[in-house]
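Hi everyone, sorry if this is the wrong subforum. Our group has a chain we'd like a structural model of before ordering constructs, and none of us has done structure prediction before. Sequence below.
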Amino acid sequence: MPQRGGGRGTSPFTVGLVDTLMSWMMTGLKLSAIAFAVSTAYILYGIYGGHLAQAVEPRVIANLQLMGRIMAASGVLATICLVFVTHEEIAYAVVAGLIGLGLLLGFPLMVAGQVSQAAARAGDIITSWAATTGQGIIVIVGLRVAWEIVIFIREAPARREQIAVDQGFDKPKKATGRPTHRLSRCWEMPFCHEAIKEMCPAYSRRKNCWRIRQGCNCDPYLIESLLKKGSGLNVLPEQGSEYVRSDLTSHQRKAGAERTTECRRCPIFNEHQREKFRLLNPIIVAACVIGLIAAFPIMREFYQMTIHGAARLAERLAYGSHVPVGDWVNRLDSPAVWYFFYIIVGLLALSYVLKAVEWAVLKVKLL
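Answer:
Right subforum, don't worry. Here is the predicted structure as C-alpha cells:
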C-alpha cells in the first residue's frame, strides 16, 4: 500500500524523529501486549480454574483489581501503539476493535457461567475492568476509522486527478476564456477542438454531443473534412495531422469502415462528468448530514432495542441466574456510547456514499 503524504520537503530531522517515534511505539506495543496477555491469562485462570466458584479471599480481590487495572492500561496502550505502527493498514485496527468487542461482551457470559453467588464481588470486578478495557479499545479504533474517513475525503481530489491521468485526459488541449461548470455546453469544454466547432452538428443544433450522440469526437468524417480544409479553417497542417488525428487513433472502436469514440472515452464528456461530480459532492454531503439528523430518533430506538435484546439473550445463555449479566450488557445503552457509535456509523455511511457517487459518476459514468 503506498504511503500517504509526504516525501517532498521532508527534512532529515523530521525523518529521524518519525523513525525514533516508530521505534518507541514498537517497543511499547511489545511490552504492553505482554502485560495484557499476562493479566488476561490470570483473570481467565481465575474464572475457569474453579477459584471463583466459592467465597474469595480479600487477597484475591486485591489481585483481581490489580490485574484489571493492568489489563485496561496495557490494552489501551497496546491499541494506541498498534494504530501508530500499522498506520498504513486499517485492518490491524479492526482486529483490535474485535478484541475490544470480545472483552466487552464476552466476559459477562464467561463470568455468569463460572462465578458463584459468594464470589459475586469478584465477578463484578472482572466484568467492570473488561468493559472498561473493551470500551477504551473500541474508542481508539473508532478514532482510527474516523481518521481513515477523513483521509479518504481529503485525498478525493488527488484520486480524481489520477483517474483523469489514467484515462489520458489530464491536460486540456485548449485554454478556455472562462472556467467550465456543470451547465457548460460540450463546445465550451477545454477539450473541444475550436477549429471544427462550426462543422460540428452538436454546436450547430446547440445541443450537447452526449445527448444527440453526435459531435467532433464521434464522427471521423468531420475530422477528415477538417484535414482537407485545414487551410481554410486557419489550422496548420501539422496541427491537423498530429493534434486532431490523435483523437481518432485513441480509445476508438471499429465496426467495418465506421470509427466512433464512446462517450465514456471522450475527453469532452469526461470533463463534463468531473464538473458534475464537483456539483454533486457538496449536495451529497449535505443530504447525508440531513438524513442522519432525521434518522437520529429512529436509529436511537433501534439501538436501544438491539442492546436490550442482546441483554435478554445473554441472560438466557448464561449458566447461572445469580449473576446480573443482563445488567452488564445494558451498560452499553448510555448516551456517551450511543453518540460515539452514531458518529462513527454516520462517517462510515458518508464515506461509502461518496465513494459510490464517485464510482458512478467518474468510473462507470452511470449518472
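For your construct planning: The chain has a mean pLDDT of 75. Residues 10-153 form one domain.
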